[in-house]
Structures are given as structure tokens and as C-alpha cells.
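Hi there,

I know you've been waiting on this one. I reran it after we fixed the sequence typo, so this is the corrected version. Both the input and the resulting structure follow.
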Amino acid sequence: MTKKIIHTEQAPAPVGPYNQAVAATGTMIFVAGQIAIDPKINDIVFPDDVAKQTEQVMKNIEAILTAAGATFNDVVKTSVFLLDMNDFAAMNAVYGKYFDEETAPARATVQVSRLPKDVRVEIECIAVIAG
């Protein structure tokens, strides 16, 4: 197996022992959980608005996928972590703008007791591209 670390300045730098994404064997890209950090200011944005936080998360994921040579069309699996499941509809409305319902990836969504930097949403994904 070959492993390539994916990094872009267009998304937040990792704040611990992980990378933005890892491409394995040249075809699979594992994008680390992204939160609502704006890489321009390196800080959390919209602390009380899950929809706006989700928009920032999706922008961060898009930047990482682009750096890896992928798009949202290449995503096969996502995991969504919500601070409050009551935020599901607001998160889902934003999330749905990035995926065509016909070809959307498999997804798991769970409520958690706490997220990094006390954000309301975190999303990770796996993409597959031709190697």
C-alpha cells in the first residue's frame, strides 16, 4: 500500500496528530473530520448557527478533496457528528446542496456529547478516485 498525505492551506490545519486527508493506494482518500474553522482567520465561525457551520465544513472538505484531485462526486461515505440531533434538518439542508440525491454517498449521522472547540457539527468522508 502506498500512502500520500494530502494538505492544503485552503482548509484548516490539523490541531492534533492527524492529517486533513490521506490517499491510500492512490485511489482512496480519507478526509479527517472537518469543523467550522475558517482557514483565513484560523478560528471557529458562527458558533450558534449549525447551517452556517455546515457550510464552512463543506467548504473545508471541498478544498481538501480538490487538493487530492477529487470532487464531491467521488465521495462514497460520510459520517456526520452533531452536538444536537435537533439540528439535523438544518445541517441536512446545507449538506444536500453538495450531493445529488441520486448519487449521494452512504452516510451515518450521530449525536455526540461534545465536539472539538465546542462546534455544533463535524463531518468526515471517504472518496475514491481512479488511481
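Quick highlight: The mean pLDDT is 93.

Best,
R. S.
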